[in-house]
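Example 3.2
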Amino acid sequence: MVKKTKTRKRQVLPAEQRRLAILKAAAKVFSEKGYHQTRISDIAARAKMGHGTVYRFFKSKRELASQVVGARGAAGFLQMLGEESIDSFDPKDLLTEIGENYLGNMKERLPIVRFSITEALSDEELASHYYDNILTPLFDGLVRTMGSFQDKGILKQSDPFLLGHLFYGMLFGYMYAQELMNGKKKTRMGKDQLIAEAVDVFLHGVIKKK
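Structure, written as tokens:
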């Protein structure tokens, strides 16, 4: 009598877990090989999935690259720019939280930040895609934040886009000089020190009060 062998059912991850696994794999491959040298097959192999699975979640390599940069870049920043955060925090606390989110988890994010800057410099179309899909929502959130504090009479009346851009520039300047260029090994400047000073200067300026 032939014994029937039990066949194990292949485990299928939930859709969101598969999407996140693809993003994680893509981030590593893009960082190692660059955008143009990376193929969908490389990402599928790293994620241990088929080509079709990757394409079910992302229509193109460009969309996938954009999602990778967004997931590692602006996600935490944008979390702090919702209406609930604006209503719950005063300007100092909210801007501090925004800074901590933006400059947090740098060890994991730096490779993809390097990738995004490098590829944007060599591919104008890709740079435009990043700006439209990542920086534009980020600046829109900052405009809402600055505008809300202006409506409450907390911040002076000025172009909210410029105000948001200036604050973002302070954070990006630290990331570029101290993290990407390893400046912090020489300056010993910590992100908490920078965030505190950036928030204070942004809200109160640098002129000594009499």
